[in-house]
Amino acid sequence: MWNLSKKVKESYVKYNLLPIHETDQDWEIALREAKEEDEDLFGQLREELEEVKEELLDILPSRFIQFVENGTLNQPTLPKAVREDYLQGMRTKAKEFEKILDTAYEQTQKAVTFLPAEVQDVFEESLHDSTIERIERTNHTLHLYINTDGGFSSKSLIHFIFQHVLDEVSDEPLQVGQWLVYNELKKTEDGFAFRVLFECPDAEWTIKMKNLDAKYYYRPVTYTRLSDEGALDEISFAEYVAQLNRKHNYWLITPHLTCEIKSFSKIILLDNGKLEFRENEFVVTNGKRSFVYQLDEYNPVHFIYTDVYEDPYEHLNEPVPIDKIEAAVFSDELEMQVRAWNTLYANAEELADIINQVLWKMTITEENELMLHTYTSHFYKEGILTEPIIEKYRTFLDS
Fold it and tell me: Measured between alpha carbons, how far is 233 from 295 in angstroms, rounded to an integer?
């Protein structure tokens, strides 16, 4: 039995079509910022409601219909009792969906114990917001390459190998660039079954196979550093290669092939091939096959991977001295802010007084809302928040 399905996801999404401000304080902040930015907040809200009005009329309980029709459901004039009722319905749906995701995760974790260590490594981290990079089919085997650059996995490229495919069902054909949002794996009598819910386009894809294997690769730490600096597409390939740690192994993985790099030189030697640069293009030869990539369309830097993980943000875990934490939290230096919050996160009980003091002084804004939600939830679970702080961040803690 599957926990995840396209129908379940759509039911959750429909009940979240129109998010609204949850508290009077949220409205005060939104109104103040709109005034400062000279924005027509009420006009924007009317447009947002109009875009989803027909769907809301189909799914919302009858008690909310009048507020959809008169356009006040997402306005500050909505009665507080109605607002809380509407928000409670959204919270209930969110908790129901979260429970489904948790159950799907539990089933996946049980099934993955029957698979190779590499597959277990992959499923230790979330595949959410990964994209399909490459699709290859040979006999009864499907090779699916997943790019996690926009996702939450430390592994940058994952190569799934679905062996001895028994069945495959999808309401949309798999497409390169398609977004993976949710997944579930289960053990079957014949082997395994894997289900993925995709977006762009929306699809429910289920594959059954006798076995599942995986390989994975990382971006070199140089790649992440240059990407964060906005310099990745400005550096030449030769300059980039010169910064790589030559003690590591590297692979060239393009939209068409995967080759281990044997040596870096003017001509990059590959396992059974080479990479050569011409005036406006580069050519990858592997055995009898050659692939030509235009430099104005493809940057070869993006094709270099390694099997060694190096944390590009390790320096952000360096603790801030206790007497400087508060100043660091409110400093203009982003790195100092991150280090300070990481220090508080890792030492919640010891630094409880500082945490409560900082949270009391913090002003909740649209920019820091997600960050504060993450940290206050963690500190709340640690049991170190005072009653005034719990009350101030109540909406974060109840969601």
Answer: 11
Question: What is Dmax (Cα atoms) for the chain?
Answer: 72
Report the chain's terminal Cα–Cα distance, integer Å.
29
Beta bridge partners, 135, equal: 144
Tens-digit pLDDT profile for residues 300-327: 999 999 999 998 888 888 899 999 999 9
Residues 270 and 326 in one domain: no
Q: Are residues 26 and 103 in the same domain?
A: yes
Q: Among residues 180, 196, 175, 178, which one has the least CA distance to residue 130?
A: 180
Q: Identify whether residues 72 and 88 lie together within a single domain.
A: yes
Q: Both 325 and 299 in a single domain?
A: no
Its domain, for residue 151, covers 117-217
When pLDDT is averaged across residues 113-119 and rounded to a whole number, the result is 98
Residue 326 in tokens: 């508060």
Asked whether 245 and 312 are in contact (CB, 8 A), the reply is: no
Amino acid at 135: I
pLDDT by residue (tens digit) across 135-155?
999 999 999 999 999 888 999
Query: Of 306, 325, 353, which closes a domain?
Result: 306
Answer yes or no: pTM beyond 0.90: no
Burial label for 239, CB within 10 Å (0-12, 13-18, 19+), is exposed
Where is 279: in which H helix or E strand? none
Q: Given pLDDT bands bounded at 50, 70 and 90, which one contains residue 345?
A: very high
Tell me, yes or no, whether 56 and 145 share the same domain.
no
Q: Are residues 204 and 275 in the same domain?
A: no
Q: In the listed set 283, 306, 329, which residue is the last one of a domain according to the structure?
A: 306
pLDDT band of 399, cuts 50, 70, 90: low
